[in-house]
Amino acid sequence: MKESNLSQQIEGNKELLFRHFEQYIRVSDELKSALDARINFVSFNKGELVHDADKVCTRSLFIQKGLFRTYFIKDGKEISEYFPAENEWSNSPKSFITRQKDMYYIDAIENTEAFCLKVDDLVYLFENFPEMERYSRLSMGTVFGHLMERIASLRFTTAKEKYDHFIKTYQEIHHRIPLGMIASYLGIAQETLSRIRSEK
Amino acid sequence: MKESNLSQQIEGNKELLFRHFEQYIRVSDELKSALDARINFVSFNKGELVHDADKVCTRSLFIQKGLFRTYFIKDGKEISEYFPAENEWSNSPKSFITRQKDMYYIDAIENTEAFCLKVDDLVYLFENFPEMERYSRLSMGTVFGHLMERIASLRFTTAKEKYDHFIKTYQEIHHRIPLGMIASYLGIAQETLSRIRSEK
DNA sequence: AATAGCTTTTGACCTGCGTCAAAAAATCAT
DNA sequence: ATGATTTTTTGACGCAGGTCAAAAGCTATT
Q1: CB–CB of A141 and B140 under 8 A?
Q2: What is the pLDDT of residues A3-29, one digit of tens each?
Q3: How far is Cα A166 from Cα A186, in angstroms, rounded to an integer?
Q4: Chain A: closest CA distance from residue B67 (Å)
Q5: Distances from the Cα of B194 to the Cα of B19, B69, B77, B174, B200, angstroms
Q6: Segment A106-124 mean pLDDT
Q7: A93–B156 C-beta distance less than 8 A
Q8: Among B81, B143, B156, whose Cβ lies nearest the Cβ of A79?
Q9: Residues 32-51 of chain B in contact with strand C via CB under 7 angstroms
């Protein structure tokens, strides 16, 4: 993992992050500079481990370019939980919130550039900018909806329907994710997914 | 549905609700009276429809005593989504947040007493009590965790494992919910659930 | 460009659980 | 209580999709 704070290219791109916040709240100049002072740039190579389940997750990464995989190990196999991509936050949610270890690993499916915000800094922002609480509440609502939809699509559906639903929710991204990881995300055998794909 | 605002028994019981808030935030006297002025008591008979998917969900109910079922219709069948019980909020989440219709119905599995808070009043509280934003963010975090666990337990598990997980998450409540509703919640056939139960 | 190490595909086989149907048990309304 | 309705149980059967095994394709490394 490389770090860097310099470079006008990077400064300029924080706009992307501000724009993300602005989907939910108005971002004042004070908030902007508070964010600016606490967020720094990180990058990962393809295959690199971003977060280890052996550790407490103390930072949240907002992906500017690239793709991660959140996964856990069950019976020695890697089960994909979620694929965080551009303009999304990525962390081990429960670990990040409770400051305890949790089961999730995160690694990079592609070379990835991201903005890093540490828990302690986030806490500072919550304390000093109530609009950040609102941002958090509202953006969680969005994710919430996705989780509920996903739960609905896991029950009472055939493997093919699960895959179709996946294509819909990940339409921009699905071709960047290896088949095996998609299968474990959907809870179906990779052989089955391979067969589903071949008959189209 | 019967309404009422009087009665010392009811006033006294709002303490339950305040205590719930206090798990996440400090509840000042000002907040208490603001809540008190905006929350009123409602009750439902067993089987009664609490929320209709044909309407926008404009209120959130905090259950004091009783049990609801949140469900939707798929291929003419009622599929249980969730069973809100004592000390939990119940609404049609997406509808409540976006003020648009959504697919969920809610009805009462038992005679149920609840506190009712309307969206507009909640918005007022958010505007005037930033700690309510925090409460909302933190309590959503809890629910979030449950949803993720549930997603994990829907994939790669046998019908029996799904049922065992259900018993664990609903340990206080599972015996109050009819078998058929549990089966649709888990995404298994009720015949299968009946067989699982009989071999114990 | 050749070897090693993954990932995906194809084939054969088998079982958990869904579906359909009907009986038994429980709940409700008069 | 008694008949009507709803819910649960039991049985028979079939298939979607899991498992195991091996071949075929890819990717990366020296």
Answers
A1: yes
A2: 444 444 555 588 999 999 999 999 999
A3: 8
A4: 20
A5: 39, 20, 18, 14, 11
A6: 96
A7: no
A8: B156
A9: 46
Side-chain half-sphere of A37: how many Cα atoms within 13 Å?
A: 9
CB B96 within 8 A of CB B55: no
CA distance A177 to A159: 18
Under an 8 A CB cutoff, do A93 and B144 touch?
yes
Question: Does residue B10 register a pLDDT over 90?
Answer: no
Structure confidence at residue B13 as a pLDDT band (50, 70, 90) = confident
Exposed e or buried b per residue across B132-151, where buried means at least 16 C-beta atoms within 10 angstroms of its C-beta:
bbbbbbbbbbebbeebbebb
For residue B27, the model assigns a pLDDT of 97
Tell me the two tokens of residue B155. 């994939």
Task: Please report which confidence band the pLDDT of residue B7 belongs to, taking 50, 70 and 90 as the band edges.
Answer: very low
Q: DSSP code of B87? A: T
Question: What's the confidence (pLDDT) of residue A9?
Answer: 52
Q: At what angle do helices A29-38 and A119-128 cross, to 10 degrees?
A: 160
B158 touches strand C (CB under 7 A): yes
List the domains of chain B with CATH numbers: 2-130 (2.60.120.10)
Query: Are A141 and B187 a contacting pair at CB < 8 A?
Result: no
Question: Which window residues (82-111, chain B) lie with Cβ within 7 Å of strand D?
Answer: none
The Cα of A137 is separated from the nearest Cα of chain B by a number of Å equal to 5
Per the structure block, which two tokens stand in for B32? 């208490």
B39 min Cα distance to partner chain A (Å) = 22
> Which chain A residues in 178-197 sit with Cβ < 7 A of strand C?
178-181, 190-191, 193-195, 197
| Sole residue written with tokens 């992307």 | A16
Q: B109 by DSSP, 3-state: which? A: coil
Tokens matching residue B13: 């019981």
Measured between its terminal Cα atoms, the distance across chain B in Å is 40
Contact A129, A34 (CB under 8 A): yes
Of the candidates A26, A7, A4, A33, the residue with the CA atom closest to the CA atom of residue A115: A4
Beta bridge partners of B77: B74
**What's phi and psi for A165, nearest 5 deg?**
-65, -40
Amino acid A179 CA to nucleotide D22 C1' distance, rounded Å: 19
Q: Is the pLDDT of residue B85 over 60?
A: yes
Given an 8 Å threshold on Cβ–Cβ distance, is B148 in contact with A97?
no
Q: Which residues of B touch A72 (CB under 8 A)?
A: 152
